[in-house]
Amino acid sequence: MSIGDELIDMKEGRSIFSRPQKPTIWFDLDGLMRGDSAARAAFNGTMLQNGVFSRNEVRISEGKNPSAAEGMDEYTVQTNMAMIQLLDTLNKAAGQKTQGAANGNQD
């Protein structure tokens, strides 16, 4: 056996140092289990609002390409159920001003 024969054998995966691998086939059955569009919208909306999925993860699960836009890989949560005592802190962090949130007024 010459050096050229050894290179060909290694190229074809018949080297004595590696085992030949069996071909593997994967079937994606997620499309069969997806449900209707209303159920998917409700599920994805809940996952986004609770910070479980990012917007790009939802796009990928819906078969769309991920977006390169800024913030699409960030996890977000809604703050509409935040305690009233924290609204002033949350709004200051967002660059807004809430009047009376610190003392419990809901103006």
Describe this structure in words.
Among the domains are: 44 residues, no CATH class; 29 residues, no CATH class. Helices cover 35% and strands 0% of the residues. The chain is elongated and about 60 Å long. The protein has 107 residues and is an all-alpha fold. The chain is built from four helices and no strands. The C terminus is likely disordered.
Properties at a glance:
107 residues; mainly alpha; 4 helices; 0% strand; elongated
Tell me the distance between the termini: 88 Å
Uncertain segments of ≥5 residues (pLDDT<50)?
100-107
Q: Supply Rg.
A: 27 Å
Q: Quickly give the structural class.
A: mainly alpha
What is the helix content? 25-40%
User: What portion of the residues fall into strands of 2 or more residues?
Assistant: under 5%
Taken in chain order, the helices and strands follow as HHHH
Quaternary form: single chain
**What does the average pLDDT come to?**
75
Number of strands: 0
Shape: elongated
Largest sheet: none
Number of helices: 4
What's the structural blueprint in terms of helices and strands?
Blueprint: H1 3-11, H2 37-49, H3 55-61, H4 87-94
